[in-house]
Amino acid sequence: MSLCDDTLLCNFTKCRTKLSGFAWVTACSHVFCDQHGSGEFSRSPAICPACSSALSGKLDIVRTELSPSEEYKAMVLAGLRPDIVLDICTRALAFWSYQVKYFSLYMYSI
Question: What does each C-alpha distance from 5 to 8, 67, 82, 95 come to in angstroms?
Answer without folding.
Answer: 8, 14, 26, 13
